Amino acid sequence: MANMIMFCILAVVILGSAVMCVTTTRIMRAATFMLFVLFGVAGLYFLLDYTYLGAAQISVYAGGVTMIYVFAIQLVSKRTLQGLTERMKGSRVLWGGLLCLIGCATVILVLLKNKFIYTADAVADVEVPMKNIGQALVGAGRYEYVLAFEFISLFLLACIIGGLVVSRKEEEK
Q1: Which is nearest to 33 in space by CA: 47, 15, 46, 45?
Q2: In terms of domains, do 9 and 89 share one?
Q3: What is the pLDDT, as a whole number, of residue 9?
């Protein structure tokens, strides 16, 4: 019962913070709300007794959000940070809501078509050992993900370098 209460609290924090993250017009507030979402997901990992994944979630994404703060301060003007510019248009909100509804409908259709909802009860009774999860994440064989992680790390490195190039100030001659 306590796990269910804790799950409900974390779910409310995650969903509320996620909605606030995408609806706020201030970039620093959006990054802060995203930090709350990521901490909530780490809380879910801890609730499932996946302490390694929870600790990795906190360490990796807390550093990532710190980088978002740095880039937000460097790349965005002072007036935008203070919220003095940029107002949302009603048409953009309408299109965003429509796209969200289409995305939710697509996810629900995929879940129902592939019967993920009905098979979740049968799969939930089987506990996967952490050794198998670790092997799947860092293995190089079939259905193992080390190559995908390497591509993602290269992509993130390219994004960091691109952000540094964009944020670099031009020297006046």
Answers
A1: 15
A2: yes
A3: 94
> In this model, does residue 18 exceed pLDDT 70?
yes
Domain span including residue 37: 1-112
Last residue in a domain, options 112, 142, 161: 112
pTM over 0.85? The answer is: no
Q: In this structure, are 96 and 143 located in the same domain? A: no
Question: What is the separation of C-alpha 112 from the centre of its chain, rounded to a whole number of angstroms?
Answer: 24
Both 84 and 136 in a single domain?
no
Whole-angstrom distance, CA of residue 102 vs CA of residue 84:
32
Which has the minimum average pLDDT: 26-30, 84-88, 113-117, 154-158? 84-88
Query: What is the full DSSP assignment across 91-125?
Result: HHHHHHHHHHHHHHHHHHHHHHHTTHHHHHHHHHT
For residues 38-58, give the mean pLDDT.
Answer: 88
Q: What is the average per-residue pLDDT within 117-131?
A: 67
Query: CB neighbours of 70 closer than 8 A, spacing ≥ 6?
Result: none
Of 31, 25, 29, nearest to 83 (Cα)?
25
